[in-house]
Design a protein that fits this description.
The complex is a heterodimer. Chain A has twelve helices and eight strands. Chain A is α/β, with parallel strands linked by helices. Chain A starts with a strand and ends in a 5-residue tail after the last helix. Chain B starts with 6 loop residues before the first strand and ends in a 14-residue tail after the last helix. Chain B: Cell division inhibitor that blocks the formation of polar Z ring septums. Rapidly oscillates between the poles of the cell to destabilize FtsZ filaments that have formed before they mature into polar Z rings. Prevents FtsZ polymerization.
């Protein structure tokens, strides 16, 4: 019996889809059987990020409405040997095409065949969010170190905590720009984590390579050397229950600022 | 010939007290009250006498109270001060209890969440920006208050808000409102502070220690020895 993890954020554009694609890839690299479910009906793009767009035959709405069986709609990622699948969202209709009960039934069915079901949630807290959350038993909240994203994450965490049968949500802080954090132009990791006060699952740096890899339809987690890839692989290991220390943000040097802050007794 | 009077009038130094029989039928009671009131006719003299009505173990509806008050007030020199009864409904009792109790809540009030209590609120945790706490009376936050707090939300100007760290986006007490400064300095608000309505109807934030003098009623501690 697998686990269903919803990846949500409230705010749009913070990296839910990128996180879903890369966490899914990283889990598959750990030999886990993973199914990605795109619930952003009407505005799907997980398939694009995964580079699986032109293999779609059936979609989530087709499954729910009984036009095909689940396994017919699953798109297999050829880079893996039978480990990573995508259940794409429909592009032609909208969020109201699916009801929460139908989603729950669908996810429960997928749990039989997969170790992990990653549900990519649309932005917002309306119907699409409800559909994405209903079948999940775990949740990952993605935020960036920006006030608006943190505010929305806070709201979503409040909603997730009320959800029945849901474990306490965990946090990924995405698109970190360490030089801006050090200069105090951005919320830093500690501030975000303290504000939201949920378990921190990982931190991911802002990197041009991520955009490039999404453009090429190849999740960055495939690249063994990139720091973002390593961040996602670490997150995958933490999801599997390993204890992995957080990545050092600035490459090696214990920076001048850190030493200065220590000297003045400021918590960095 | 009646054996027992349904309305007994007693004079005290504070005025008159009317003891009403709580066993008889209500219309009998009204009839006798009317008789008695007619009887005092002609004894009117100058000063107004205050009347307290003691209804005993009879539950009086609002309209009953109105009827009794009207009957007595027909006599120009009588003014009804209070109509008292030993009985209250379950509903009133529950409301009374709720309004006078301190409700404690452990946890964090996140953006979009609203916590409302009829009486005092003791929040063991923070209020995040975008979160709201509301109370019929006072609000005490042990953690950091960054969201909105509304004390005395049913119109109690005496209500106060206290917080371990006072960094609210907005404070409201009764129908008054106060916005936060546009930004907080780091060193500010490291100690517990309280907010109240001052004499000029402004919400002010002050040291917690001033509460003892401003709102002594908050203290419900009774008896025992206060050492030190």
């Amino acid at each position: 019996m697998g686990e269903a993890i919803v990846i949500t954020s409230g705010k749009g554009g913070v990296g839910k889809t990128t996180t879903s694609a890369n966490l899914g890839t990283a889990l598959a690299l750990q030999e886990k059987k993973v199914c990605l479910v795109d619930t952003d009906i009407g505005l799907r793009n997980l398939d694009v990020v995964m580079g699986l767009e032109n293999r779609i035959i059936y979609d989530l709405v087709d499954v729910v409405e009984g036009r095909c069986k689940i396994h017919q709609a699953l798109v297999k990622d050829k880079r893996f040997n039978d480990l990573l699948y995508l259940l794409p969202a429909a592009q032609t209709t909208d969020k109201s095409a699916v009801q929460p009960e139908q989603m729950k039934k669908l996810v429960d069915e997928l749990k039989q065949d997969f170790d992990y079901i990653l549900i990519d949630c649309p932005a917002g807290i309306e119907q699409g969010y409800k559909n994405a959350v209903v079948g999940a038993n775990k949740a990952i909240v993605v935020t960036t170190p920006e006030k608006s994203a943190v505010r929305d994450a806070d709201r979503v965490i409040g909603l997730l905590e009320k959800e029945e049968g849901m474990e306490p949500p965990k946090l990924i802080i995405n698109r970190i720009r360490s030089h801006m954090m050090q200069q105090g132009d951005m919320l830093d990791v500690d501030e975000v984590a303290a504000h939201l006060s949920i378990e921190l699952l990982g931190i991911v740096a802002d990197d041009d390579e991520v955009i490039k890899s999404a453009h090429n339809g190849e999740p960055i987690a495939h690249n063994p050397n990139n720091r973002v890839s390593i961040a996602y692989r670490n997150i995958a290991r933490r999801v599997l229950g390993e204890s992995v220390p957080l990545q050092q943000l600035e490459d090696s040097k214990d920076g001048f600022f850190t030493r200065l802050k220590k000297f003045f007794g400021v918590r960095s | 010939m009646k054996t027992k009077q349904n309305v007994v009038i007693k004079g005290t130094k504070d005025g008159l007290t009317l003891h009403l029989n709580d066993k008889c039928a209500f219309n009998e009671l009204l009839e006798e009250l009317k008789e008695k009131m007619d009887a005092v006719n002609g004894q009117e003299h100058g000063s107004i006498i205050t009347v307290t009505v003691q209804a005993g173990n009879r539950y009086l509806l609002d309209e009953d109270i109105k009827e009794i008050t009207e009957l007595i007030s027909q006599r120009e020199h009588l003014a009804v001060e209070a109509v008292k009864s030993n009985v209250m409904t379950m509903e009133e009792a529950i409301r009374w209890k709720e309004e006078s109790e301190v409700v404690s809540y452990t946890g964090r009030i996140r953006s979009g969440q609203v916590l409302e209590v009829p009486g005092d609120l003791l929040l063991i945790g923070d209020v995040n920006p975008g979160g709201t706490v509301r109370a019929g009376r006072n609000i005490f936050v042990l953690g950091t208050l960054k969201g909105v707090a509304h004390a005395g939300c049913y119109g109690d100007d005496e209500a106060v808000i206290a917080a371990g760290r006072m960094m609210p986006s907005q404070l409201r007490i009764s129908r008054y409102l106060n916005r936060a400064p546009d930004r907080y300095e780091e060193e500010e608000s490291l100690e517990t502070e309280c907010a109240y309505i001052d004499d000029s109807n402004q919400i002010v934030v002050d040291r917690l220690q001033v509460l003892k003098h401003l709102r002594p009623d908050i203290s419900t501690f009774k008896g025992g020895n206060h050492v030190g």
